[in-house]
DNA sequence: CAGTGGTCTAGACCACCTG
DNA sequence: AGGTGGTCTAGACCACTGC
């Protein structure tokens, strides 16, 4: 490969940014100019700059040009916890129990927004996850049986709803919300904790191309920590 | 645009995956074949499949071809906002206050692991972030003055430590931990809340190529929710 | 070794946005 | 209105890797 590759271009642009030859907020030369400078095709420069844009180092706009990002947005990518794997990774025995399963109209309160356009009844599940038979987390879930009809026939005594969905329904996009809540009396009982204890709450809603799939609110046992890495 | 765009190709391939016309682990047709089928150039198909690969829907290998991902690794990309921006995005006035600043030996308890190899004293900061003069979050931070000597001269009355670091020190990797805690009396007082209230706690440690940079423990006001999206 | 994805080029047209 | 990035095409060569 005698020609300049897009990775070479990316590297050199990144170097200039880190060396502050091009400063934060500054407009960098256009694609044509850079292509000429690097002695490559414009598409090659485009490829490099698009990558840098994806990585958050620069911002691009038609007509306005390409600017060095003022504050590079830090993006942390973390794996969505499949609770069974989390438990087993800790060397404990996983089990779970469904404590309610019924068809009900879409909820209005929590996570109700995602079901705004949904008029049919949803599958409503409440379950508890255990690690070595000790309560680990409690979850409340709604599943759209219109987009996922097959779930009606699943036997949840052997596989959790979460895991079945992960394995059977490709997800396109999802929303997350992390918060801390004080356990209600009923929640505390399920988790073998005290009423009022602080617990981590993760809410998640997922979509397919064909519409909303599921929303879930998971409440972890007091003291639980969710860890992740960024790179 | 009369021709087929790479986004059209991406969409159709994704549809086939979701409809299980192409199943998990299955080999999908080669780029040339798809290009012919879609009536577009091979590069266009390549662009679409590369995107899907980046998104984790398929795995690609030279010679071996492209396969539908068995279990799509679910990754949430989490934007770490500077608290000031978060507050201002909500239309409120941001301010902050340093309540302690001193040089101390590395901590042993929380987040002490990252400083295990560090023998010098660290810059220790405690500060409160306000939204419209109402407490928003409280943070405890350690900064490595060996790797970031310039921070000793910074005037934090105009810029927060977080923001200064984001703007001046490129971060290579970092760790996160989310948990819920019950506020101690002293913490509650700073956040204008009640002792024992449940609060979201985010701990973060960041590294550079040259070593650890900073570790921080942020405690948000009770009721605060941290939101993010995956795509 | 041969098939597959990875990339480059040159030219072209287009969509968007700022001035 | 005009400049900038976004994308498509057709053809080509290369790099990797399974067989």
Please summarize what this structure is.
2 copies of one chain form a homodimer. Chain A is an alpha+beta fold.
How does the SSE layout of this entry go?
The structure is a homodimer of 231-residue chains.
Chain A: H1 6-18, E1 27-28, H2 31-38, H3 42-54, E2 58-61, E3 65-68, E4 74-79, H4 83-89, E5 94-104, E6 122-131, E7 134-143, H5 161-168, E8 173-182, H6 185-191, E9 198-208, E10 211-220, E11 225-230
Antiparallel strand pairs in A: 1-3, 2-3, 5-6, 6-7, 7-10, 8-9, 9-10
The structure holds a DNA duplex (19 and 19 nucleotides).
Task: Describe this entry's structure for a reader.
The structure is a homodimer. Chain A has 2 domains: about 5-70, Arc Repressor Mutant, subunit A (Orthogonal Bundle), CATH 1.10.10.10; about 85-220, Chorismate lyase-like (Chorismate lyase, 3-Layer(aba) Sandwich), CATH 3.40.1410.10. Chain A is about 25% helix and about 35% strand. In chain A, the strands form 2 sheets. In chain A, strands 5-6-7-10-9-8 form a 6-stranded antiparallel sheet. In chain A, strands 1-3-2 form a 3-stranded antiparallel sheet, with helices on one face. The model of chain A has no long low-confidence stretch (mean pLDDT about 85). Chain A is α+β, with helices and mostly antiparallel strands and about 230 residues long. The radius of gyration of chain A is 24 Å and the shape is elongated. Chain A binds a DNA duplex (19 and 19 nucleotides) through helix 3.
DSSP strand (E) fraction of chain A?
35-45%
Number of helices of chain A: 6
Rg of chain A, Å, rounded: 24 Å
Q: Can you tell me the residue ranges of chain A where pLDDT is under 50 for at least 5 consecutive residues?
A: none
Mean pLDDT of chain A: 86
Identify the CATH homologous superfamily of the largest domain in chain A: Chorismate lyase-like
The main pleated sheet of chain A reads as: 6 strands, antiparallel
In the CATH scheme, what's the topology name of the largest domain in chain A?
A: Chorismate lyase
Number of domains of chain A: 2
CATH architecture of the largest domain in chain A: 3-Layer(aba) Sandwich
* CATH C-level of the largest domain in chain A: Alpha Beta
Strands of chain A, count:
11
Order of helices and strands of chain A: HEHHEEEHEEEHEHEEE
> Assembly state here?
homodimer
User: Biggest interface and its residues per chain?
Assistant: A-B, 49 and 53 residues
Going by helix content, strand content and strand pairing, the class of chain A is alpha+beta
